[in-house]
Design goal:
With 582 residues, this protein is an alpha+beta fold. It has 17 helices and 18 strands. Strand 1, helix 2 and strand 2 form a beta-alpha-beta unit. Helix 6 packs antiparallel against helix 9, helix 7 packs across helix 11 and helix 9 crosses helix 11.
């Protein structure tokens, strides 16, 4: 039986009502383009509104996330995915939620208890350690060695204030190695498969926290990841979710999956996402704005990779794949069958439109890039590829990246505005410095990311570059380019180097200058094209020089003691460090 059916049947047997999946395009939330998580459509009810189906709910929700489009093509990222969830709206709480999670994993999915481990909230200055969750897990047969309290990822809050609470994450040991007695969440053989969030508290604007009179439970299980884990494959696209689609692409292209993985994964992922966007009741069509722009970008990127696989551009390859996908999902999502012809028409029309110019555009791109003197593709050439050949700027960037060429994206956007008199495209986004707020502790963390970046360059190598960051008042997360898992020695040296620089009390100096001057001065920057013409460069002695939106401490001695808590894979060629200041 399909995992979706097993999940729904189980929670219905526990008194839950199945609610239909919300559309992928939110009906009453203009702040986002798509529903990105199972709980998103339920926010009004988690905030207190009465749900027509009652207080116990379960579903499988269609979700689309576009923040990871550039890493689609690896083994585990997906633009469209399904999230399984069950909710209690002021009904049951921790005991039932944890017990049912355990029962589903061990008795329905038949996962041996010895392959399971959990994390729980360790507590902080305002909220106590979640002893209740620990005792429930122990009573179910999870040994104390397999329960790991942590503050890092085990507390949930939507923003700066509002409903919040501890959560408990469940992990599965995915390896043929002997299972360790003690659970170490840093050990990558342990894979997170489920999360139970307990909305127990309310955080006020003054930072104080009080108990909620009506407590909720929100859970989430990513279907694609769990299926891959249960089937024992390390590549999601080799699981039963994708296997038949990949085999169809192999047949259409007359090429094996091995050696062509990236293009086949992108085609499979993007056509599936395009099917769900096109079938949505919102009636999205490819365009140059908002959801329509995402749809166009997905279809055109899939076409480009079909071209790379030498699939006959005049065949109906996209229809074959879309039909296979629709047949796979129509049982669960009625709009797929109802809008079948609309989906096929959207794909067909966009393919015809793009096919006319793709080959010529690729030839033009080759000609342009072969004649560049400075490895920079200027705004006029980028706009020509868009206006004449229909290349979304992201496609031009992707092609350029493969050849180590920089694109003047900011210049392109200005030119786009001038010529099209339209707002910036929805997918371009705005630069954010990774800060949820500007509190004192977050300011310290932000400066610490600069020291960490500099330390990694010294310990691991000069080719390390920041790929992203996320900062809360509890911890920092730092993504960086690296082709290997850091050794214990590398982690220790990095941590010691950061703490050495903190103890040396080095002044942090900010200087205003033009973007061009900053680049010439050797300042490092992530997403250079998203900065204005005048920028701020932060220098920490001779150690670090970076463009940044700030804020920062005045002297490194203000930061405190730096501790690396976890180092793990983020995406292909990108590692992630989670660290705290103590």
């Amino acid at each position: 039986m399909n995992l979706k059916d097993l999940y729904i049947n189980f929670f219905v047997s526990k008194g839950h009502k199945q609610i239909p999946s919300a559309p992928v395009v939110p009906e009453n939330d203009p702040s986002v383009l798509f529903n990105t998580a199972g709980m998103q459509p339920l926010i009004p009810y988690l905030m207190g509104k009465s749900h027509p189906y009652g207080t116990r709910l379960c579903d499988y929700q269609k979700c689309i996330r576009t923040n990871d489009l550039d890493v689609i093509g690896d083994t585990y990222h997906h633009t469209f995915f399904e999230m399984l969830g069950n909710w209690s709206l002021g009904d049951y709480f921790k005991k039932e939620a944890i017990t049912w999670s355990f029962e589903f994993l061990t008795q329905v999915l038949n996962i041996p208890v010895e392959r399971l481990a959990v994390t729980v909230f360790a507590g902080n200055n305002t909220i106590p350690k979640d002893e209740e969750a620990i005792e429930i897990w122990k009573s179910l047969g999870i040994s104390e060695d397999r329960i790991c309290p942590t503050t890092d990822d085990n507390f949930w809050i939507a923003g700066e204030t509002g409903p919040c609470g501890p959560d408990t994450e469940m992990f599965y040991f995915r390896s043929n190695d002997e299972i360790p007695t003690k659970f170490d969440p840093e050990d990558e053989r342990w894979v997170e498969i489920w999360n139970d969030v307990f909305m127990q508290y309310y955080k006020h604007e003054d930072g104080s926290v009080t108990e909620l009179p009506k407590k909720n439970v929100d859970t989430g299980m990513g279907l694609e990841r769990v299926v891959a884990v249960l089937e024992g494959v390390n590549d999601n696209y080799e699981s039963s979710v994708w296997k038949d689609i990949i085999e169809l692409i192999e047949k259409i292209s007359n090429k094996p999956y091995e050696g062509n993985e990236k293009s086949m994964r992108i085609i499979a992922d993007h056509i599936r996402t395009a099917v769900f966007i096109s079938a949505d009741p919102a009636g999205i069509k490819p365009s140059n704005t908002d959801q329509g722009y995402i749809l166009r970008r997905l279809i055109r990127r899939a076409i480009r990779h079909a071209f790379q696989l030498e699939i006959n551009k005049d065949s109906n390859w996209e229809e074959e794949i879309a039909i296979a996908i629709m047949d796979k999902y129509k049982k669960y999502y009625s709009e797929i069958e109802a809008n079948r012809e609309i989906v096929l028409e959207v794909l067909r029309n966009e393919k015809i439109k793009f096919n006319r110019t793709l080959e010529k555009g690729l030839r033009e791109f080759e000609k342009i890039t072969n004649n560049l003197s400075d490895n920079i593709l200027n705004k006029d050439l980028a706009f020509k590829l868009y206006d004449t050949y229909g290349f979304p700027i992201e496609l031009t960037e992707e092609l350029a990246k493969e050849r180590n060429i920089t694109v003047d994206t900011e210049g392109f956007k200005q030119k786009f505005k001038e010529h099209q008199e339209k707002s910036r495209t929805a997918s371009a986004g705005k630069f954010k410095g990774g800060l949820a707020g500007n509190s004192e502790i977050e300011t310290k963390y932000h400066t610490a990311t600069h020291l960490l970046n500099a330390a990694l360059k010294q310990v691991v190598g000069p080719d390390v570059h920041q790929k992203g960051s996320n900062i809360t008042s509890e911890r920092m997360r730092f993504d960086f380019s690296c082709d290997h898992k850091l050794t214990d020695e590398e982690k220790l040296q990095t941590e010691q180097l950061v703490n050495k620089w903190i103890s040396e009390g080095i002044d942090v100096i900010s200087t205003e200058m033009s973007k061009e001057e900053a680049i010439k001065s050797g300042a490092e920057c992530m997403f250079i094209e998203k900065y204005p013409d005048m920028v701020t460069v932060y220098s920490i002695g001779e150690i670090s020089k970076e463009l940044c939106g700030g804020p920062h401490v005045k002297n490194t001695s203000e930061i405190g003691s730096f501790k690396i808590k976890k180092e793990e894979a983020s995406s292909a060629g990108v590692r992630r460090i989670k660290a705290v200041i103590e």
